[in-house]
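During the no-cost extension, the postdoctoral fellow (Dr. R.K.) reprocessed legacy sequence entries with the updated structure-token encoder. One reprocessed record is reproduced below for audit purposes.
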Amino acid sequence: MRFYQIDPTQDARWTEFVRRHPKASVFHTVGWLKALRRTYGYEPVAFTTSSPNGELQNGLVFCRVKSWLTGRRLVSLPFSDHCEPLCDTVEDLNFLIRYLQSASEHQEWKYLEIRPIDVNLGQSGDGIDFLPAASHSLHTLDLRPELVEVFRSLDKDSVQRRIQRAQRADFVGQCGRSEDLLRDFYALFVVTRGRHRMPPSPFAWFRNLVQYLGAALEIRVAYKDETPVAAILTLRFRETVYYKYGCSDPRFNKFGAIPWLLWNAVAAAKSSGAIEFDMGRTEDGDEGLLTFKNHWVPRPKKLVYWRFPETPYSFDSAGGWKLKVAKRAFSFMPSRLLTISGQLLYRHIG
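Re-encoded structure tokens follow.
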């Protein structure tokens, strides 16, 4: 086999390949890759055994992250919940990985990171030797049953009753991609990240997602007496809808606006033919978010990020001391300074 690399945002074959490959997700799409490049300066690259003149048969997509603060590395993919290798055979996958491992010694990459859903890269004795870098839970809600059955599968006290309470609270919901909705979403997002003692992603990230993903992205905002109280951002690819971001004003949390928005998104996804609602990754140490999602999907899947070679905790690892120290510093920052910190830091931690 031969080894080739392409720019997936420029090679016309990539869009068609992603469209037809059964393991592809929204995170493989050209729109997502362009938003990563435009916002953070990452360089998308895909590796394949298919010749430049032939149809793409496989591909591993990465971003080259170049940072004076955190080092040079290949990540598949930054700020993406998961990114399955698009290989139909173990032989193709192992060939590509071995080549990249060999090349990493000459490219001065700090590490390679792959974020698969199903692939176990923790093999030994065959030249793979990736090690776990982080562990998460992945909650996916099955939308194939009738909508009433989907609702009945949700936790009665923590989800069903909160949705019903929100319906009595007379929230007004708006859905779309307008600049006003984006700004209302982001204002709530800044507040929420502040509660978690973390800087928000740059506003430019969300604006670029809107620009490059277009109709595949929806923002839903709940208003109470014209005041935005909660918002979610979802993505769509083929028959899967992805819940990517959620945020709220804590003064209104008792009314259940987030569950109400999520249920509206689930119902809309179901009515438009989606068969799966991907609720995204949750770090094992985030007990609050894990409990919330377990009320929707009680048996999540284990999601492991793999790295070669083994490296110490990265900045944003849940168990890393750097993140713990940073959170303490962030807790004293006003919202404006926290937002500026996000603009400066996020390109280094992808």
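The CA atoms of residues 18 and 42 lie 20 Å apart. The chain has a mean pLDDT of 91. The remaining legacy entries will be reprocessed before the final report is submitted.
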